[in-house]
Amino acid sequence: MARREHNLKIGVSGIRGVVGDFLTPGLAAAFAQAFATYVGAGRVVLGRDTRGSGPMIEHAVACGLMASGCEVVRVGVLPTPTIQIYVGATGARGGIAVTASHNPPEYNALKLFNVEGLFFNHYERAELLDIYHQSVFTQAENAQIQGQRDESGAAPRVHLDRVLRHVDAEAIRRANFRVALDAVNGAGAVLTPGFLREDLGCDLRAIAIDPTQPFPREAEPRPDTLGDLSRLVAESGAVIGFGQDPDGDRLAVADETGRVLDNDDVLALVTDAVLARTPGNVVVNLTTSSVIDDVATWHGCRVFRTPVGEANVVETMLAVDAVIGGEGSNGGIIFPGVHLCRDSYTGMAFLLARLVETGLKVSALAARLPRYYRRAGKAPFAHGRLGAVLPRLEEHFTAAAADRSDGLKLSFEDGWVHLRASNTEPLLRVAVESRTESRADALYREVMELLG
Amino acid sequence: MSPRPFLRVSPVGLRGVVGPGLTAAHVLDFAAAFATLLEKPGPVVLGRDPRASGVMIREGVVASLLACGRDAIDLGIVPTPVIQHAISRLDAAGGISIGASHNTAEWNALKFLGPGGSYLSSAEADELLDIYHLRKFAFAPWDRVGQLRLVSDGIDRYLDTLAEVYDFAALSRFRVVVDCCNGTSALLLRRINERFGTTFVLINEKLEGVRFAHDPATTRDTVGLQLAPLVRPLNADAGFLFDVDSDRVALADETGEAVSEELVLALLADYLLPRGPGKIVVTNLSTTALVDWVAEQHGGRVVRARVGRQAAIDALAGYRPEQIALAGEGTGAVMLPRFRFIYDGIAAMLAVLSMIHERGQTLSQILGSYPRYTILKGVVPLKTQRIPALLMRLRDRYAEREGGAADTSDGLRVAWEDRWFHVRVSQTEPIVRVICEQRGEAPEELFAALMDEVRRLA
Fold this sequence. Notes:
The structure holds 2 protein chains of 2 kinds.
Chain A: E1 8-11, E2 14-18, H1 25-39, E3 43-48, H2 54-67, E4 71-77, H3 80-89, E5 94-98, E6 107-113, H4 122-134, E7 148-150, H5 155-164, H6 169-175, E8 178-182, H7 192-199, E9 203-207, H8 227-236, E10 240-244, E11 251-254, H9 263-277, E12 282-285, H10 291-298, E13 303-306, H11 310-320, E14 324-327, E15 332-334, H12 344-358, H13 362-367, E16 373-380, H14 386-396, E17 401-403, E18 408-412, E19 415-421, E20 427-434, H15 437-451
Parallel strand pairs in A: 3-4, 3-5, 4-7, 8-9, 8-10, 12-13, 12-14
Antiparallel strand pairs in A: 1-2, 2-6, 5-6, 10-11, 14-15, 16-20, 17-18, 18-19, 19-20
Helix pairs in contact in A: 1-2, 1-4, 3-5, 6-12, 9-10, 9-12
Chain B: E1 7-10, E2 13-17, H1 24-37, E3 44-48, H2 53-67, E4 72-77, H3 80-89, E5 94-98, E6 107-113, H4 122-134, E7 148-150, H5 154-165, H6 168-171, E8 175-179, H7 185-196, E9 199-203, H8 220-231, E10 238-242, E11 249-252, H9 263-272, E12 280-284, H10 290-297, E13 301-305, H11 309-316, E14 324-328, E15 334-335, H12 345-359, H13 363-368, E16 373-381, H14 387-401, E17 405-407, E18 412-415, E19 419-425, E20 431-439, H15 444-457
Parallel strand pairs in B: 3-4, 3-5, 4-7, 8-9, 8-10, 12-13, 12-14
Antiparallel strand pairs in B: 1-2, 2-6, 5-6, 10-11, 14-15, 16-20, 17-18, 18-19, 19-20
């Protein structure tokens, strides 16, 4: 079958697409009606990130929610974790964030949260999707339509206060760190400056904190997209730099020299900080670096691996009662003490606390981590080809231990290879890691050649 | 008990019982179709009445307008005439009024308005329906999505215009009781009192989303419920009742007598025809013959169109605006030339008050100067498809055998020298309407015979 441009995707991760002819208000409203039909009449929290199509989709979602009898609690432009926490904290039936997260500005999407403010799990997602496809929605009559209320003022404090309970905020304030921030003009722009300045007493140097402006850089915070943050750190003499994605769940970190750390290392630093205080289980996805295993070993703790996707990590974290988790490569830190969601604010607070506790610089903390070399790439993905490709790789790397729980992960003594079909794009994602740079390069080349 | 699942998609717009009939999907698609239809650049103005479902519908309308690259200007809860005024004032591309006017609370509807706040022509309305059915909407690319703006001075700017036309200083000597029926007229009249020192005493003035104090129909019967009994105790000069979105009006005179809804148009024809220059009264086949009598007194004439707003609009389009004195129906819906030919209950009320002021007579004196006509109206549920046969039978009997003049342009109307009847199927509900009028006494016998015949075959 020919490969198509997937400008709209309706599936277990919800609904995501390019706004215009693909993601239409009618689709968004219908999906919201399916959601409302599933969660039942009651409060549903609705917020969004800053992309220009956000208000349009938000109106459509509010329409659908009300049409099926839910009361819409509007919280406006806020980070996704803030919305999730507010859902769980206020007894809502569920929540919807209008955000395409790290995707480019032409995209938008709905992130769906259950009564606890967690991403819908497998079963919930499947059932919701069935309701959507059956198109048999609860249709509220006039007297059952509950209207909407604005609680945008209340939601931020619930989130930030929860984060602050887990760090010595007073000590951080006393340190009066100079901190750099790139909020990509996203939802973080409305929350992060106040959090760092007022709550944590930082001397803040910030760029891209205007929520009315477009994203000034590629939305995903990675070493190669955070050049402006690097320069800001270097020029301002900040001790650390934070880069957020448009909906404030992902976090990237620059050290005091302006070097942006690998996202896996950021998760490793936070994991180290958490396990030092409360040893326990760690859950990460299959593509997360082995550095996590090493850090867990320092503290005598165990690491569980899951398929890629926040919902998968969260499900396993619940199952094994994990104390920390996340998705390394994409900058997701999940600390259940605050909430079972990716939260850049927890990451920022824990890292600043770590600087206070250790008295070390970020570069020094990072230098203590075991060194791994990572390569990541994409290969065009053709339907029906996986069945031929994966065995070929398995047969080629006979010495490796194979894990088939999400694509194929082949683990060696000195590294691993992970291949999986992207959930959101028509691509095969390839990740390779090894202890030495030459081995990582060789392994990566070998895999890409086998993929043709 | 659940309301019945009613939905009507017609050139006049979208109307139905919210939930089982009218859904979010209808709203989104219709609003997108409207945005696709509009050619004039500029924003789209919207407003709503206080029904609970109005908020849901507003969100859907806004989403589709923005998605089609239109900016939306939301006036909030306002009378429909205020929306039409704002469209014209803001030079907007058009507007949408969310509200089911004289229907009960479980209903809602979208009314589509073109540039200048006018109703859509039949050609435009048909095209809107075609786009809706095709579902090929002109969605804008992601970086051209529109923005929503809230505007709160819609009512005040509309009052500015009213103040240019009506002499509020003179009208402030009247004490007037108004039954707002928990609708939008309350917002406007309260503001008129504040700004112009008038004495509109309001009842049922609290905006309600779910339960109105009574059926919001502008008829003599509803005027008789709460409004008319209050006129004398409050020593008022008149009583007026508005439907929920204030486009229709009904009244009671200073003696506390509920006036037939048929008389509003006749009264205003009597006021406006001598003022000129328009000499034509546009009305429909179901409206009282008193209008013809009034027109004759002033050397004017009556043009009768099929029932329904769309037919009135099409009839008006056949004349130069200055030829028209006014247009309206026997339902309390009246359009005045000065107000761009839109149904405007507030402007109609102010015209009636101005008439009382200028004539120096009481309302009952003016009404008492007209010959008496008695109209009977009946409704029969529509269950069969034998309507053509029914109409043929009636025509046979009353036109062929009893010598009446038959008009078949909308159901059947048969007229004699001093009486007439009209039998037609409603455009908005599954019912047959029977209307029968006679100069002097009520045409009881004719009416009973008609109702019998219709019940048998409808």
